[in-house]
Specification:
This protein is of the alpha/beta class. It is built from 29 helices and 15 strands.
């Protein structure tokens, strides 16, 4: 119950909501299922809130597990006191638990432990008490013992000082105070070789307070040091650190007090400072990583949820030089109709032949859109396509599509299974075409880290990054839903309750028995049990099946409710999606949703969701988003001039700004300071991946391939 209360307070949720969500998660329910079909129990907690709760729940449970492990270890040493146990149980973070455990943690042999072996711990304790006027050296004379290696009083005193220094270093209260001081007063520094012109040049003489350093700078410093270009440090004025230690350790102005002060200085320099420097860098990196993962996850969400280009025959164009440009024509369903290789670029320059071949393909298959990859030879390919469109007069447009991850997919086992008859490059052309048609269906086949919409993603803790991104993909796929009879194993594998093995079994069943006619047939799929069916059924659609409800997001468990609604409205299942369904909201308002829900023995949120779904069955949430910007002419970097206004698409959002595709090969950067007239804490407050924006050119650096843009003083599309 304490756990529920803590989660409730931290996440600002009602205890009943938290308790219900925890119970549902512990029962093995997936987050998409809980968010969509258990709203009555959680009071409509959405995916994001449930994921935050799930992450925090895992942390707190791991914290409690660690508390128990530490208590057990100290108990086995017969050193656990009631006060210490209370302190461990009250520790709010893993760091605090480790601080309390530090004095009892098994260590390698140290100067302090060697001194203890020599019997010098009583001397150290006597000095730390500071209640005697005796000189520490005279006290040490009583501990001379050549048999134990203590030859002189100086040896004894030195060993006792080592023990005191180690005890100070292991003191949890002292480390806590120093940790706060470091965050308040320490500075992150970096140095580098000023003669080297590298990406890290701006960090060659760098200083910034620990408490204010931006996450992306932490990540840059971390990578720069790993690559050998930077040397970083955490700098805290020694006197400030020693004063903080003295307040906790020095209680008398006598010889013993001065000895403790000396041991404190040694403890800081030799033990505490290096340890806490590592700890601080680790904490900064972990926090920066979490921020980067959040930004990456948000970018991924918006990328996956970009609107599909439905009903279009698309020609995918994978640019290249020596090996030519690979082409693939796919129909409106993504099925490959034809492939070709053309050689319009260096060293062949077969431009006329290319235009002839491409024009023939456009005419033969009634292609309406050309999807050009943004990799090598993209500029040359775009120019040829723009010329071809102008010369032919065909009703064709083109779009530049990010190739990020296309080569990874093309060379994957999945791609070879999907297209065994094509080589790697032709598979890439298919992927480029399909990711314009349906970004979600195509991009789920690619490791999110290869998609290129994050910052420093390859430096992130792999397990944490993978878990976060998997959650995003799962959320997006389930919010859209998939066609059970056409979805690929890759897409099915992200549906709630379905793993990769079950996804393959679904496709195998489909291929053997023909398409699914009803959702309950899923129970015949090997390894897909009742629990998995409960989790996945609502997210899988069957068009033209026996029951029209199978084409909707209405869960099979709620079919009686939906049928009851239809009966009250004087409608039949066959009326779903027709104008007759427009009567449902009116009926609900007239009766009152609460009364209607009671009559149907259902929860009010479920009734509202069913009414919305019956009006627009299987509605794609991506339909309301701005469409892809299609072009018919080419723009080059040399054409850009300051003050020029352009329309572009946001390709990536990072801590320091947003990269915008304005129709040239290089994306332009809108720095965070140029996002608007008002202060912006983070670019994600203003922009997201896929947004269509108007920008003004500030500066063009052709040598470095950099374009600086601004949105300040520029009317945005929504305002036009």
């Amino acid at each position: 119950m304490e756990l529920i209360q803590q989660l409730s307070q931290e996440l600002k949720l009602r205890p009943a909501q938290v308790e219900a969500a925890v119970r549902l998660l512990d029962e093995g329910n997936t987050i998409p299922f809980i968010a969509r079909y258990r709203k009555e129990m959680t009071d409509s907690l959405d995916d994001a809130a449930l994921r935050d709760l799930s992450d925090r729940l895992e942390y707190l449970r791991n914290l409690q597990k660690r508390r128990e492990e530490v208590i057990r270890s100290i108990t086995e040493q017969e050193k656990l006191t009631p006060e210490l146990e209370t302190a461990i149980q009250a520790a709010a973070t893993l760091a605090e638990v480790e601080d309390l455990y530090r004095p009892y943690k098994p260590k390698r042999r140290t100067r302090g432990s060697i001194a203890r072996e020599k019997g010098l711990e009583p001397l150290a304790a006597a000095i730390r008490v500071q209640n005697t006027l005796r000189e520490p050296l005279s006290m040490a004379a009583e501990y001379v013992n050549p048999e134990k290696g203590v030859e002189t009083a100086e040896d004894a005193l030195s060993g006792a000082m080592d023990i005191i220094a180690e005890d100070i270093s292991d003191d949890g209260e002292i480390r806590k105070a120093l940790r706060l001081l470091i965050h308040r007063a320490a500075v992150v520094t970096a140095t580098g070789d000023s003669t080297e012109n590298t990406t890290y040049k701006m960090y060659y003489d760098f200083k910034e307070p620990v408490g204010r350093i931006a996450p992306h700078r932490v990540l840059a410093l971390n990578r720069g040091e790993k690559e050998g270009f930077l040397k970083t440090a955490i700098v805290l004025e020694e006197e400030k650190a020693l004063e903080a230690i003295r307040r906790k350790t020095v209680i008398a102005n006598n010889a013993c007090g001065r000895a403790v002060m000396e041991a404190a200085a040694d403890s800081w320099k030799r033990l505490i400072a290096p340890s806490m420097e590592n700890e601080t860098f680790r904490e900064l990196f972990e926090n920066a990583s979490e921020q980067a993962i959040r930004v990456f996850a948000e970018n991924l969400h918006h990328l996956l949820m970009q609107p599909p280009l439905t009903g279009q025959v698309v020609l995918g164009w994978d640019p290249g030089y020596r090996n030519g440009c690979k082409l693939a024509v796919v129909d409106a369903t993504g099925r490959v109709l034809d492939t070709a290789v053309v050689y319009p670029t260096q060293p062949f320059n077969k431009i006329a032949e290319t235009k002839r071949k491409v024009t023939d393909l456009l005419k033969k298959y009634k292609v309406t859109v050309i999807s050009i990859g943004n990799g090598t030879a993209s500029r040359e390919s775009e120019k040829i396509v723009a010329e071809l469109i102008a010369e032919s007069g065909l009703p064709v447009q083109y779009a530049i599509v990010s190739e990020a991850g296309a080569s990874v997919y093309s060379a994957s086992k999945l791609a070879s299974e999907e297209f065994p008859e094509y080589d790697v490059n032709l598979r890439s052309a298919v992927s480029i075409a399909r990711r314009l048609q349906d970004p979600l269906a195509e991009l789920v086949k690619i490791d999110p880290k290869a998609i290129g919409i994050g910052q420093y993603q390859h430096d992130m803790p792999p397990a944490r990054l993978d878990a976060a991104l998997a959650g995003v993909v799962e959320s997006c796929v389930n919010s859209v839903g998939v066609d059970l009879n056409t979805a690929s194993p890759s897409l099915l594998g992200h549906i709630a309750g379905i793993n990769a093995a079950i996804a393959k079994n679904i496709v195998a069943y489909r291929e053997k028995n023909g398409g699914f006619a009803a959702r309950p047939q899923l129970l015949k799929v090997p390894k897909l049990g009742k629990k998995a069916y409960e989790q996945c059924a609502g997210f899988l659609r069957i068009s033209g099946g026996k029951n029209p409800l199978d084409a909707t997001a209405v869960h099979p468990e709620s079919y009686p409710i939906a049928e009851g609604l239809l009966t009250l409205c004087g409608c039949a299942l066959t009326d779903i999606g027709t104008d007759k369904m427009k009567e449902l909201p009116t009926l609900a308002e007239k009766m009152g949703y609460k009364a209607l829900a009671a009559q149907l023995s259902a929860g009010e949120p479920t009734v509202r969701d069913i009414i919305a779904e019956l009006q627009k069955p299987g509605r794609d949430p991506r339909e309301s988003l701005p469409p892809t910007v299609l072009r018919s002419d080419v723009l080059e970097m040399k054409d850009l001039k300051p003050e020029m206004e352009l329309t572009g698409t946001v390709r990536n959002v990072v801590d320091f700004g947003a990269f915008v595709d304005i129709g040239v090969h290089e994306d332009g950067l809108v720095h965070i300071s140029q996002l608007g007239e008002k202060y912006v804490k983070h670019p994600s407050e203003v922009l997201k991946v896929g947004d269509i924006v108007r920008v003004k050119v500030l500066e063009v650096d052709q040598k470095r391939g950099r374009i600086s843009l601004t949105m300040r003083g520029v009317k945005q599309p929504a305002q036009l």
